[in-house]
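Appendix B. Raw example, untouched.
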Amino acid sequence: MNITITYDKNYIFGGRKVPKKYIKKYENDLAFNLYSNHHISNIEWTNKELNKMFQIYGVNYTFYLINKKIDIYEEKFKKYNVHTKKELADFYKYFDKTKKEIKKYKLFKKLESIIRTKLPKNLTIFLYSENVHIGHTFGNIIHFGHTEDWKCYTIVYLAHEAIHALLNENNFKQDHISHAIIELCTDYHLRYLLSGYQTISIGHPYLTELRTKILPYFEKYLESTKDIFKFIEEMRNIFEIQQVAEKIKI
């Protein structure tokens, strides 16, 4: 497994700071949205606009054009984006700590033993300042930065995102059931292996009920030899049938 842990010096602190009056002015400008990180809140629109440009200019020339425009925004707004030496030092400390913990805990080997399949051969992790509070995966590229709310928080959620990358690579359908199972594998079980603590309440609140229902099956899964793909499909069969039954009953 090839893991690259890196950062983009231009985006350590997330999207660029931009005066509010410009956010409205340039809201339909793809380059501006990528520059300021506002594309994160509208991924569907961003992908649609990128695909339009790919069809007209091709991938390489599209990014050449976008980067040229981003350079203009860099110059225009640079006075709003000056960070202190302490802010930078805190980030580098977080970056080094995360890399050391991944190695110390053999994170991805542990994760593969839980999901019983290989993670993507190539995985790239972009780390951000802890204060950005970002956690997204596009293809096999993870973007993450968050305060350490509890022991091993960052590496547990990097494992969480790595499973999303695995499902992406296999074009595997992702829904509430697959997401709840990812949370059980990482937020619940992996956290216990790394820190000795676990709670079913950690994860997205809207998935709490589903996680709780799947938990007894998950405990049996851990004692089996099934891989995560088979387990997700089994849970879909069980819970989709239950949903249909409940609708009929109503």
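End of appendix B.
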